[in-house]
Design brief:
Length: about 230
Amino acid sequence: MSGGTALMLMMKAGVLKPTRLVSLRRLGLDKIELGAKGELRIGAMTTLRALEKSPHLKAWPAIGRTLRTLSNVRVRNVATVGGALAHGEPHMDLPPLFSALGATVTIASAGGERTASVESLYAGYLETTLKPGELITQVQVPAMGSRKAAYLKCTTRSADDWPAIGVAVVLDGDKPTIVVSAATDRPTRIASVEAADSLKIEGDLHGSAAYKKQLVRVYVKRAIDEARNAQR
């Protein structure tokens, strides 16, 4: 159990009925620091609010902007970065942005450690590639360099509700990396605006598949424009 925000909702809904819960709070995984190559290193137990307020985010402004609209302050005070990635919920905001930024995670188990890209963590709706007994201990976000990034989402109900779609864009020169979420069952990379038409869109309470497909077309273009105009 990390922050427990998603876990408690699943327990209340009867989706998950654990016989035992083990808190991860005393493992010391809540540090935020810069690595030797200028990468951002985020401990998995870092709360979303602590990351949002960290002075280290100066070089990654897109992460700060994303966090300020992620749910509400009460949730961000408790929810953790590792939990947000490990949950496998496709409506989360950080997985598509971290995927587009080329972030990786360190995963620990009794057998040792391994490294995986954030993008490779997801197998489907609420499904991840984490194995039993594995824990995310740290997230590493590469230095931005000359890249620019943006994340946009559309919420069709309250502003802090799950988004109908989320779009993360990272520009390296004129070359865009585009990752779409919420409209799909996992963060999904597309090559261009035109490729959005080939996405398998999932309709839900936040919008029909047809409505979300139109949102993707609009928001991919908007996110590219926002990334182009973003300050490094």
